[in-house]
Amino acid sequence: MPDYQLNHAVTDLEGNQLLAAGTRLSGPVMETLTCSQPTAVATRRLLDYRQVRPDLLGFFAAAPYDVIFHDPARQRALLAIAGDVVMPEAVLESLYYFRRVDFYTYRHTLLVFALSILIARELINDADALMQEIIAGPTHDIGKLCVPLEILTKVSPLTETEFDHLRHHVLAGYVLLSYYFRDSTILAARVARDHHERRDGSGYPLGRPIDHLMTDIIMVSDVYDALISPRPYRPVSYDNRSALEEITRQAGAGIISETVARVLVALNRRSRPHYSRCVLSTERRGTPPENNGYGVIEK
Ligand SMILES: [Fe+2]
Ligand SMILES: [Fe+2]
């Protein structure tokens, strides 16, 4: 395994430290961590957990997501797949914690999950394989549990030190999910670790080009939702056209997957073309918000 090292401690929802800052995530360290959980882990369905289902339906109805999710047949298929996702209760509690303290992150994790299912079902034909892959969606940002709330909800651009702490969420997520699922090799843990890597090696934590379909799908869903949603530090979000143009630009530059970007663009067309026939235009007609803060951090 490449050399991952924690810049900050990883703690669970109750504040118990799982690993200290400076820990190298070696095989033996991860082995000890995953064996430290009790053997019986209680699991529940994500959509049946407290207000998750009604919340998700409310998010679907709000523009610009209504374009993607308004189709009843598409929504039924999506909910049937999402309805089968079960998770350890501690993971559900951790996700639900954000509903109270950082609603943006809560909404974001559910919408990335839903969007990643719609994209994945276009690209993965086998139903069992699809179920195994899509579980990685809702938990990709669970490591934000280990980022101070004042950083997550800061209304001005982050400093370099704060950004370093924010970047911690990828390895924190990997550790937390390895711990809760008692397995450091599960997809959800790897996607949490890798979803900010980029195909051209410009991402983090290692700057390593990732070539894995579900990671690509979460990556594109994650960037798209970040563009079109208000963020604490950027109250004006991208309009849908500008967001899709930015996604197309990043795909053209080899930063994110072009196939996944094409599926996302197809999902946004009301005529519902098959993604393979969807042309990615490089023409820029949208108007991105001025002084947009997406990915731009004040040094
Ligand atoms: Fe993230
Ligand atoms: Fe995210």
TrEMBL record:
Leader peptide range in chain numbering: none
Domain HD-GYP: 79-279
Cited InterPro entries: HD/PDEase_dom, HD_GYP_dom
Species: Desulfosarcina alkanivorans
Name used for this protein in its record: HD-GYP domain-containing protein
Pfam families the UniProt entry points to: HD_5
